[in-house]
Write a structure and sequence with these properties.
86 residues, mainly alpha, two-stranded antiparallel sheet, 1 helix
C-alpha cells in the first residue's frame, strides 16, 4: 500500500499567503520607482526650461543699451538698440 503525497490545506494557504506578500512588495517597489522616475524627469525638464529662460534674459540684458530697476527692484526695464536686435 503506497500513500500518495499531496499538499495539505495549511501548506496551500501558506504558499498563497507568501506569494501574495511577495507580489505586494514587488508591486509597491515598482510604483515607488515609477513615481521617483517621473519626478526626476519632471525636475530635469524644469531645470532645462529654467536654464533656457535664464540664457534668454542674460542675452537680452547683454544686448540692451540701458537697464534699470523699477517698483523697488521687482521690475527690470531695458532699453533695446534701435536696430531691433534683442
Amino acid at each position: 500500500m503506497t500513500r500518495s503525497r499531496a499538499f495539505t490545506m495549511i501548506e496551500l494557504v501558506l504558499t498563497v499567503s507568501l506569494t501574495v506578500i511577495v507580489l505586494v512588495a514587488v508591486s509597491g517597489t515598482y510604483v515607488f520607482a515609477s513615481v521617483r522616475l517621473s519626478d526626476a524627469y519632471t525636475k530635469s525638464s524644469l531645470y532645462d526650461q529654467i536654464g533656457g529662460i535664464a540664457d534668454r534674459i542674460q542675452a537680452t540684458v547683454r544686448n540692451a543699451d540701458t537697464c534699470a530697476t523699477r517698483d523697488g527692484g521687482s521690475t527690470l526695464v531695458c532699453g533695446m538698440p534701435i536696430d531691433g536686435v534683442d
